[in-house]
Amino acid sequence: MEKLYAYAYLWALDFVTEQQYNDYLDRLFLESPYNELLAELELCSGSYNKSFGVLYGYFLRTNAKFDINTFGKILFAEMKKIYTDNRFTIETFIDKCCWLYRNLPDIIDVFDCPFFYLGHIDDIYDYCGEADARKQIEQMLDFFEES
User: Global pTM?
Assistant: First the structure.
């Protein structure tokens, strides 16, 4: 479910399309058609906010262990593709990082690397310049590749 949760965030950030999220959800649902969580997610597949709520509720209700490595690897790998493709200006990418930082669920410790940097890239950009911000972004995006 962590991979699906990451895709919901990527969809909210416009890093993947709603269709890409739904394609992944559909694959999971076809593999497990009697899974109640996936059925509920299918019903709200047109809204990433509703999907966030369902997935967050799943982790709270079931006390399922949230695998931060799976979530982070997917999230940051997809973010790296967008960053290296220059789909957004550096300022827009930084704004999206800050939005992500502010909207991560509290099951993620935002003080852990690399999540901490999501909310502080804008400060690095403002006070140290674009070159330093890009260096920090690249280190952040590579974090889960190294683990």
Answer: 0.88
Q: Can you give the three-state secondary structure of 28-97, one letter per residue?
A: HHHHCCCCHHHHHHHHCCCCHHHHHHHHHHHHHHHCCCCCHHHHHHHHHHHHHHHHHCCCCCHHHHHHHH
Burial of 43 (0-12, 13-18, 19+ CB in 10 A): exposed
Nearest in space to 82 (alpha carbons), one of 12, 19, 13: 13
- Domain of residue 123: give its range: 76-145
Whether residue 139 lies inside any domain: the answer is yes
Average pLDDT for the chain: 90
Q: Is the domain of 80 the same as that of 129? A: yes
